[in-house]
Amino acid sequence: MKTTVVALGGNALALADETVTITSQFRHARESMAMIVELARAGWGIVLVHGNGPQVGDELARNEAARRLVEPLPLGVLVAETAGWIGYMLQQSLQNALAAARVPRQVATVITQTLVDRYDPALNHPSKPIGHPLSDGEVARLREAGRAVGRDGAGRWRRMATSPRPLAVVELPVVRQLVEHGTIVIASGGGGAPVYDDPLLGLEGVDAVVDKDRVAAILAAQLGAEALMILTNVDAVFEGWGTPAARPIRRMSVARADALIAAGELDEGGMKPKIEAAADFVRAGGGRAVIARMGAGPAALRGETGTTITRES
């Protein structure tokens, strides 16, 4: 069975230009499952990794607003919490879509932990946007409270969290067994709850958010997947992004991806980690990585759209 790991951004469920409710997120979840059904019908083994940037930021805000009533939860625990309810939402939506299409595949959500280095310098530098875009008043209030804020890839003010580099997925053997039996697995939700391995205590949680694209690349490499698909809100990787001369890059070698990163043409909170993750997967022996717009997955796998990254151009 050919296997693909599909990375779905949390922004695909919580759009920046609409009022976000649980109803709207369920609607977007249902809309996003058509391409997963198409892959399942074609016989692909599938692991679905989702982001949680807007959602975990909302959970953090809820915790802080209710701190006088109940004990706030740490960020690492909120990652696991959002992985649970977003996983439930995607799982239910996919189960219904598979049943309607008469595709007999099972779906399971696995709450996973992501191993990180407890001394990763990134833990001292908040750089990962979470939550929704902020007004100037909200920025001032958060700064006064000592919270980190910054600009995201679209130039909007967002709350920032630390984001260490992932090293491994703790529950990899469980995910592999399920995939080998034909189950569609939702794993590493929100990048997985970050943990480090303490020599005395074992696994211990970290208050951070791990980039889901980097974790998806690790999962894809360790599963021996034929393809990694990173689905986002743009059609492809663009050369000259943000300029009148911008044009999509349909095929790209790992060397060219590295050159784009080195040239500083990619924003830290947007396309840069996606291309880094895609290049890392291919470099580790993966077949190909695809970056494409949400919903274009199967067509992007066929090379009809998106950007395909391979070892050679």
Mind explaining what this structure looks like?
This protein is 37% helix and 23% strand. With 313 residues, the chain is α/β, with parallel strands linked by helices. It has a domain of 173 residues: Acetylglutamate kinase-like (Carbamate kinase, 3-Layer(aba) Sandwich), CATH 3.40.1160.10. The protein has an 8-stranded mixed sheet, with helices on both faces. The protein is globular. The two termini are 26 Å apart.
The helix-strand sequence is: EHHEHHEEEHEEEHEEEHEEEEHHEHE
CATH superfamily of the domain at 3-115 and 166-225: Acetylglutamate kinase-like
Number of beta-strand segments: 17
Q: Low-confidence parts lasting 5 or more residues at pLDDT below 50? A: none
- Secondary-structure class: alpha/beta
Note the beta-strand portion.
Answer: 15-25%
How much is the average pLDDT?
90
Largest sheet: 8 strands, mixed
What is the gyration radius calculated from CA atoms? Answer: 19 Å
Helix proportion range: 25-40%
The outline comes out as globular
How far the N terminus sits from the C terminus, by CA atoms, comes to: 26 Å
- The CATH class of the domain at 3-115 and 166-225 is Alpha Beta
CATH topology of the domain at 3-115 and 166-225: the name is Carbamate kinase
Judging by the overall fold, what is the CATH architecture of the domain at 3-115 and 166-225? 3-Layer(aba) Sandwich
Number of helices: 10
Strand arrangement within the widest β-sheet reads: 3-9-2-1-12-16-17-15
